[in-house]
Amino acid sequence: MSMDEHVLEKLGWGPPFQEAWRSRASDVEEPARIGADFGVEYVLYSARGDMRATIPGRLRMAIRKGQSVRPVVGDWVSFEPRIQEGTSIIQAVLPRRTQLVRKAAGRADEEQVVAANVDVVFLVSALTRDLNPRRLERYLTVAWDSGAQPVLVLTKSDLCEDLVAARERIATLAPDVPLHTVSSLTGEGLDAIWQYIGGNRTVALIGSSGVGKSTLINRLVGSARMEVGAVREDDKGRHTTTHRELFVLPQGGLVIDTPGMRELGLMESEEGVRTAFVDIEELSAGCRFSDCRHEKEPGCAVREALRSGQLAPERLESYRKLVQEVVRPKQDTRKTTRALNDFQKKRGR
Ligand SMILES: Nc1nc2c(ncn2[C@@H]2O[C@H](COP(=O)(O)OP(=O)(O)OP(=O)(O)O)[C@@H](O)[C@H]2O)c(=O)[nH]1
Ligand SMILES: [Zn+2]
C-alpha cells in the first residue's frame, strides 16, 4: 500500500469509492474528502493535506439540473489540484454510501443533505425531564433513512435518578438499536461509546440543542478539536485559519459535527416510519384489511394488541402522528395534482 493510500484510508477511503474514482480514468484528478463546507468554498482532506477548493461552472450547472449532487461534508470527490492558484477544482462527487437528510426549514418539499458517507449515527438525547421518546422516534426514522447504523446515546446520566427505568422506557422504542447511557461530566459509560469510533469509520451525532453533543464530542475528539480555528502555515507561507466539520481523530476514526446537523429536523419518509415502527407494521399484517388504519375497522390486530397490553397506547399514538405527517400529506398532494389536471383538461376543452 502506498503512503497516499494509507492517508486516504484514515479518512475513510475504501473499495466502493476507489472503484468509482478509478473509473474516471483521469491523469490529473485526485481523490479527497470534504472536511468543511462554506457553500462557495470547501476544505478538502487529501493525500497532499488540506486543500481549498471550489466547484467549476460545469459542475454547478450539473447540480442545478439535478445531474449531480451538491458536495457536502463527508463526501468523496475527485479534484484537480491547483497548487499555484491556491484553490483546487472539484470535478465530480463520487457516489455516496449513506446520507443524512433533513427538510429545509419552511419548505416541506425540499430535502437537504447535511452529511454524506456516515457509518454510525449517534441519536443523542439527555436523561433529563426533556427526554422525549417521540422525538427519539423521529430521529430514528432519520437514521433509518440515512443508511447509517443508529446508536441511541442518552447523555447526562449523572442527572438521572432512575437510570434503569429510563433505559427501559427508551429500549422499547427500538429493541434492536444499541442503547448507551453516558455522562460527559463523570465519564461514566464513555468506554462503551469508543467501540463505535475508530477503524476509519465516520460517526455523526444528531440531537436537539442542549443535549450535550458538543460536550460529548469534546470528550471523544479532545485534541483533534483543538485544531478548530488553529492558525497554520499554507504552502505559500501564508497563515490561514482552518475550519473543520469532519474531525480526524488521532487514534483513528472520524467524527462529523456540522451546523446543519444541529438543526437536523424531521425528514421522515414513509419507509423510515415503517422501519422505526416495525412492531406496528408486523401487527398490521394480522389485520383483516390490508389498508387498515387501526381506527374502527373490524378484525384489527393492532387494536387487539392494545387491548391485550402487548402494545403501548403512546406507541400507537406517535405512530399515528407520524403517519399523518408523512404519509397523508403525500396522498393529499396527489389528490391536489389530480384535481388540477382535471381542471386544466376541462378548460382545454
Ligand atoms: N450534568 C451534565 N451536564 C452536561 C453533560 N453533557 C453536557 N452537559 C451540559 O449541557 C449543556 C449543553 O451541552 P452542549 O454540549 O453545548 O449541548 P449541544 O447538544 O452541543 O447543544 P447545541 O450546541 O446547541 O446543539 C452544557 O451546559 C453542558 O455543560 C453531562 O453529561 N452531564
Ligand atoms: Zn388494524
From TrEMBL:
Positions that bind Zn(2+): C287, C292, H294, C300
Domain EngC GTPase: 116-262
Record-linked InterPro entries: G_CP_dom, P-loop_NTPase, Ribosome_biogen_GTPase_RsgA, RsgA_GTPase_dom
Region forming the signal peptide: none
Protein residues bound to GTP: T155, K156, S157, D158, G207, S208, S209, G210, V211, G212, K213, S214, T215
Pfam families to which the protein is assigned, alphabetical: RsgA_GTPase
Stretches the record annotates as Disordered: 330-349
Keyword annotations of the record: Cytoplasm, GTP-binding, Hydrolase, Metal-binding, Nucleotide-binding, Ribosome biogenesis, RNA-binding, rRNA-binding, Zinc
Protein's name according to its UniProt entry: Small ribosomal subunit biogenesis GTPase RsgA
